[in-house]
Amino acid sequence: MLVEDAKRLLVFVAHPDDESIGCGVLLQRVPAALVVFAVDGAPAGYGIEGKFGSLKSYSAERFNEAGRALRLARNSSFRRLNTRSGTYFPDRQLFAHLEEAADSLVSIARVFLPDAIVSHSYEGGHIDHDACYLLAKHAADTLSLEHFEFPLYWKDETGQDVFQKFRNTQEGEISLNPSQTEIATKNKMLAEYQTQRDIVAMFSTNVEKFRPVRVCEYGEPSRNFSYPGTWRSRRDSRSALQRFSEFRHGR
Ligand SMILES: [Zn+2]
């Protein structure tokens, strides 16, 4: 099965904007899509409160943007993962709540009944993206879904930023060949993300790559990771990796 052949596609991403950057064309092609966002998109410690009043209002604005962006893809809607107490998972902290997040993802998928799930590739770039990779694998295994991944960003050995390329070569990689209309719509989707304007501008709108996930591969992030709030700034990166491993192997 190719990712484009999905009839009901669950797009599982960490943050509002990941889906439009990575899958904005794909979302226009599939008959029905549900985007599931994993975290609240409002990391503490970056002075966001000053600009938006509170982390909560910043988060709310990001999800307003997602709603507007996804309306442009016509057949897409979104849901958010919930903790057991009904709150949202905090940005950058998903790795600490994997079992709870997995329960939420699987129960959303059981209602939507997708035939495929597409999510982040494991990149060692953003820790929430990497957590989503593991959660998507878990949901795909639990519900016997086809599982696909897409690349966003990471750093290579020399410290160069790499965008929208997989970190290694594997079979089955495809690139969508978007039409001008699809690109125009994707640009409109991305333009809805005003709070993320600078980040969104770094990506190319006519590149969308996907490939099937056959084996679960994850490990140490690259040494030159330097994205804000991701692996680099984590003094606990070893324990975060340990959490991934415990989740994957069911303790
Ligand atoms: Zn993201």
Which word captures the global form?
Answer: globular
Poorly predicted runs: none
What's the level 1 CATH class?
Alpha Beta
- Beta-strand content bin: 15-25%
Physical arrangement of strands within the biggest beta sheet: 3-2-1-4-5-9-8
Helical coverage, percent range? 25-40%
Structural class determined from secondary elements:
alpha/beta
Classify the fold: give the CATH topology.
Answer: Rossmann fold
Can you tell me the CATH architecture? Answer: 3-Layer(aba) Sandwich
Count of the domains:
1
CATH H-level name... which superfamily?
A: LmbE-like
Total number of helices: 9
H/E series, N to C? EHHEHHEHEHEEEEHHEH
Bound ligands, each once: zinc ion
| Main beta-sheet annotation | 7 strands, mixed
What descriptors fit this protein?
two-stranded antiparallel sheet, binds zinc ion, 9 strands, 7-stranded mixed sheet, alpha/beta, Rossmann fold, 251 residues
